[in-house]
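User: Some background: our group keeps a shared notebook of sequences we're curious about, and every so often someone picks one and asks for a predicted structure to add to the entry. Today it's my turn. The entry only has the sequence so far, pasted here. Could you supply the structure so I can complete it?
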Amino acid sequence: MKFKRDQITGSVLAALGIVFIVMISQFSKPITAAYPGPKLMPGIAAVGLIICGLGIFANGCRQKEPDKPIMSKAGLLRMLISFAALWLYILGLKYLGFLIVTPFLVYGLTTYFAAQSKAQTKLWVRIVFAVGVTLVIWLMYVQLFDMELPIGELFE
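Assistant: Of course. Here's the predicted structure to add to the notebook entry:
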């Protein structure tokens, strides 16, 4: 029996969800009404992975037509450029910090993907979007959640 791509993807997602649940169950802090603890959000994500994985698997079982190629060369190149950008972003976070590096990443990726599509956006729209995304994330983490974001070794 030959498995379809959706069946393999769904199985892997469901298995990852189960692995995450096993890992989460090893946390010692219990979930209470006063403090949900570190288990709640990963637990919700793990259950979501299992449900989505089972849905993708079931869709693959119902699918009658043969699988299409997984990814074109252009798609593979876009994926590799995205991973390289994220790797540079992590490196930049270490030395320059969140507030400096994040707008450049968001601007760079939106510009790159906008160039690949038919929907072109204006320069100022991408700049405002990049700065806005950075500020919203910063406000959520620093002001709302009272957490620190990387400042960068050059500014410490």
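Suggested note for the entry: The mean pLDDT is 84. The radius of gyration is 20 Å.
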